[in-house]
Amino acid sequence: VNPDLARERKRATFDPIQLTYVLYNGPERVRRKRYLQSLAINDPVIANSPDWHTLSREQKYEEVMRKTVYYTNRVQELGLTDPEEIFSYWEAGMAHENSAFGLHSSMFIPTIEKMGTEEQKQAWIPRSLSYEIIGTYAQTELGHGTFVRGLETTATYDPKSKEFVINSPTLTSTKFWPGALGKTSNYCIVMAQLLTQGQNCGIQAFIVPLRRLDNHQALPGVTVGDIGTKFGYESIDNGFLKLNHVRVPRMNMLMRYAKVLEDGTFIKPDNDKLVYGSMVFIRSVITNDAARSLGQACTIAIRYSAVRRQTEVSPKGEEAQVLDYQTQQHRVFPALATSYALWFAGRYMVDVYLRVTEQIEKGALEELPQLHGLSSGLKAFSSWAASRMLEECRMSCGGHGYSNASGFSKIYVDLTPACTYEGENMVMMLQSARFLLKCFAQAKSGAKLPGLVSCLNRPL
Amino acid sequence: RGSSSIDSRLDLTALFDAYEHRAVRLITEAAGRVQGLVTSGKTGQQASNQASVQLVAAANAFCHAFVLKTFMDKLSVGVSDAAARSALNTLCQLYAVYGIVDNLGEFMIDGYVSSKQATMLNQRLLDLLAEIRPNAVAFVDAFDTPDNVLKSALGRFDGNVYEAIFEYAKNSKLNEKDVADAYHKHMKPFMDEM
């Protein structure tokens, strides 16, 4: 071990393992995390993977598909079911490379589970879990992003055939950006304007088959493909999708909350926001991702700053550790503090999400607006802070921070898309602000606000 | 002295109180702006647009306070080891103080934090950097990120940075041949011609 780094470890006032236990919820979790990581790291099938930065786009897509298929099988063989354990295992072998089936497990299946009827779950969940169906979630369009009410894709109910006709009426209505849509998925949840009995009943979720299950070719009326190279996320086939009057059965609209009866009558859900439940989950997780990525950037910057020596502090003295310069501390220590702060906030949000969704399952929707309002703002706050500070960490490493050998680029291009996916950050902040204004109005009229927003009862 | 009770001890409750005050004030002002515009004849959407910068600032301040609160809550109940708790407390103070110094205008505009308190916070921020310095490596070691996940020559656990950077350089694909193809294809003809 480098002597400077060894000395740093000796001078600390606490044992870092004690904080590791705090971060990962106890010694048993840490022991298990390390065990699973070592399994993945020492696996010969993955250990000799090529250097990520030397691969072309197509090679990255294929390499990640290889790893994804392999790890999917290994996870089943190992009997892993806890999401945190699965994540630890995967991360050790393909950190910041993104699973090819990520959206299948994080958006497609959970959306059916949360928004589907029992009959619909029976129809699609077992086939999804066995990977006969691989799905994704298509909301964003070429001309429309976070403003979901502006989406143009239509789903017109035909009571004669008892089918929905899903259509992309314009170029700008082409679904654009959804991960794994281009080449990987054979099914998709399409968010579309429901038209029935001459009425627009708002955005609803529809299960749409995209590709034949026997040879993976696109189905009639479906135009689907990859959108091209990007800033990062090169292993993911973010895609476009045009649907030309594609017919799906009535049961393909997810109808746990909103419903369309056989004659075309629309039954409203109790709460409009239930439609966006999957996105709320991802937003809750983004804070965790931001914390972890920023923590990794801090690890690089701080260890390097302890090893790197530059310029004498006193004339003819030895070159000082960069970490001893106040300016360097001022660049990286706030980032370190922020990574810890976001770590705890992220954990809290996921806990809140799980608690609130459990209540929603029981029909109690009171806390949903609070979760929706807060998760939007926190997603924006955390991804902005982490992106900005990660870049500061990179620059604090001087020229070597620019080399791919530093590891920063892989982390950065994996983190910074969080500022725009699952809701562009500025729009997310405005969504959060609208929620706060509603709470503020309630507080002014004398209501006692619950939980997180109770501070708005405070007189100035 | 401002209305805030922040002093050089950097009590977290006092620091959080300032964050909460800032959030509530910004929300109140944004709401007032929207209401004023609606009263003057704008539609709700027009009013929201014309107050949108303030609305974002308000939401941002609320989230900032929320993140600080969850950090404090973790400190108060989730860290049993005294030495680790003490170090983490300093880091939490840094998070809170840096956030105030970085957004000083929003904390001072109504005098809640005074200029004297702001000067003190600026100084204490530098003190906190020095306090954290001996624990910096331990703090990042605590993330327990394996080298295989970090994939960084600079951030290796063993600190053998320069050996790793040089090894990485030697493996560059351009080094597979001593003379690159581009020399024969483009550079040599150009040099001969000149």
Textual characterization of the structure:
The complex is a heterodimer of chains A (460) and B (194). Chain A has 13 helices and 13 strands. By secondary structure, chain A is of the alpha+beta class. In chain A, strands 1, 2, 3, 5, 6 and 9 form a 6-stranded mixed β-sheet that branches. Chain A has a 3-stranded antiparallel β-sheet with strand order 4-8-7, with no helix packed on it. In chain A, strands 10-11 form a two-stranded antiparallel sheet. In chain A, helix 5 (57-78) crosses helix 6 (83-94), helix 9 (277-307) packs antiparallel against helix 10 and helix 11 (368-395) crosses helix 13. Chain A is globular. Chain A starts with a helix and ends in a 16-residue tail after the last helix. The relative contact order of chain A is 0.09. Chain B is an all-alpha fold. Chain B contains 10 helices and no strands. Chain B has helices at 12-39, 44-50, 52-77, 82-102, 104-108, 115-132, 136-141, 147-150, 161-170, 181-193. In chain B, helix 4 (82-102) crosses helix 6. The longest helix of chain B is centred in the N-terminal third of the chain and has 28 residues, at 12-39. Chain B is flat and about 75 Å long. The mean pLDDT of chain B is 96. The interface between A and B is large, with 96 and 81 residues.
